[in-house]
Design a protein that fits this description.
The protein is of the alpha+beta class. 53% of the residues lie in helices and 15% in strands. It has 2 helices and 4 strands, in the order ββαββα. It has helices at 28-36, 64-116; strands at residues 14-18, 21-26, 45-48, 55-56. A 4-stranded antiparallel β-sheet has the order 2-1-3-4. It is elongated.
Length: 117
């Protein structure tokens, strides 16, 4: 007979805080999945037995690598948004200027119309 399959190596059981609720325990691989699906972000507080206290997930060597690409993605998105906002802001200014320009003339036009009557 063959030997029964060995249970997986016991991974640390992690707890984390989300929406002011303590959740867990979950394994390290489950934590990585939660990070990948963005249910846990870099500032999410996490804890496992043996730690002195709760710590941000990105500050732990077990998870810090998983946030490097996420942080870079956020910075890239922020820069792309800022570039679009600058371009979009200028276009919006021109559109508003063209549409509101006739309103700017009203205070001068109405008094002159009244004096003509």
């Amino acid at each position: 007979m063959s030997e029964p399959p060995q249970p997986p190596v016991d991974q640390p059981k992690w707890y984390y805080v989300r929406f002011q609720n303590r959740l867990g325990p979950v394994s390290t691989s489950e934590m990585l999945l939660l990070i990948d699906t963005r249910r846990i972000d870099a500032s999410t507080l996490v804890w496992r037995q043996g730690m002195a206290g709760w710590a941000p997930a990105a500050s732990l060597p077990e998870f810090s690598f998983a946030f490097r690409s996420t942080i870079q993605d956020v910075l890239n998105a922020k820069n792309e948004f800022a570039l679009g906002l600058n371009t979009g802001g200028f276009i919006l200014f021109i559109v508003l200027l063209i549409n509101c320009l006739p309103l700017c003339w009203i205070p001068w036009v109405i008094p002159s119309l009244k004096t003509r009557q």
